[in-house]
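Sequence only, no structure available. Ideas?
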Amino acid sequence: MIDQKIDRGIAVVSIKHGKANALDIELCQALVKCFDGLRTSDARAIVLTGQGQMFSAGADYVRDFVPWIDRLCEAVFYHPKPVLAAINGHAIAGGAVLACCADRRIMARGNGRIGVTELLVGVPFPALAFEVLRFAVPARHLPEFTYGGATYDCDAALERGWVDEVVEADALMAHTMAAAHQLAQLSPSAFAETKKQLRLPVIERMERSGAAINESAVKIWAAPETLSVIGDYVARTLKKSKI
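Reply:
I predicted one. Tokens follow.
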């Protein structure tokens, strides 16, 4: 499900979970455990990537998933060490949110797309997942991304601020590792404190309203009409994939 190795002081975490690396409760739990463990490891930075043509595409739309996607965002977004996403392929829905949890997002040139499709499926964003998006992408594009539910190729993603860089696919890991080594040279305590300061508005909003937002979100996710919309969307998507 997850491969983890230390390469010259950099932890490389590779998601290998089915065809799409889709976020389900089991994968969220494994990633949370991994990132929590890396807090006390000797690694000075973390590179998160996927396998094949998938970084992570999709999410498990079940009631119990809401607290786990928030827990995953906590583990990655608030991690005190530098986290870089090497986006090797599609990063859709929860996968796009996961990529946005990183301090730097580098995408491979190719067929991969990135975007959040939650509203097309009929579900709202869990509280911290939305705050991650608000933090990571330009404010002027946030309504377009969330209301529209579109996915973007690498060039459009770079132009709109979904990612920080686009590199050739065969150079993705080497380029991301170089960027990780650069961040790893910074003082760990100074980096962690600066990162905390940058995220302070997110922390404050979550303390004020995170629990109430998630309570409302869970009700919508579990509603029969939502499950019907999800079923129709999945059926259409599967039909398109066979054409």
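Residues 187 and 220 are 44 Å apart (CA to CA).
Hope that gets you unstuck.
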